[in-house]
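Long-time lurker, finally posting.

We've been working with DUF1684 domain-containing protein (Natrinema versiforme JCM 10478) and I want a structural starting point before designing mutants. I don't trust myself to interpret raw outputs, so I'm hoping someone here can both generate the structure tokens and explain anything notable. Sequence follows.
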Amino acid sequence: MSDSIDVDRWRDELESKRAEKDEFFADHPQSPIPPEERADFEGLDYFEPDPTYRVTATARVHEEPEVVPIDTTAGREMRYLRVATLEFDLERESEDLEDGTFELAAYQQESPNEQPLFVPFRDKTTGQQTYQGGRYMELEPTDDLADGDEIVVDFNLAYSPFCAYSETFDCPLPPEENWLEVTIPAGERDD
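Top reply, 14 upvotes:
Generated this for you. Predicted structure of DUF1684 domain-containing protein:
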């Protein structure tokens, strides 16, 4: 973990967010869980919180963002802007896990509204321990992101898109540039 945080407080906040999401999935009319399955819904599955997967990334901001067509689960294409590339290190204590420096592209939809950075990704858990279509993160920088700025990327907040729970949704699939050749056992997982 690159920055110093109160790990107990971080863990409590993470568990609280997860409980809130479970409540939304169980009860809310806009839940992706089909209505007939909500009574049996017992909560989402997660990897244990691990501060190792809360890293500080350095942003390389793209002044003239390139349009990136991103395929969706329904076979359509959505247009996003690649607004930044986030570079980060993963250092694990276990010998069988890969250390190294990795990059993820961060996107925004073509829209004048302020939006969080959308970071869809796949890793070596995809299709095995996590949803086969990949997972998402949304990052909200405190200010306008500038070249060289640092931003926290917490993979413990990685989540499966709604189409993991119902085929009625159409979800963007992580483009190949965001396929990480590393195992990230953090965030939501498949049961």
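Before you design anything, note these points.
The CA atoms of residues 61 and 145 lie 7 Å apart.
The chain has a mean pLDDT of 91.
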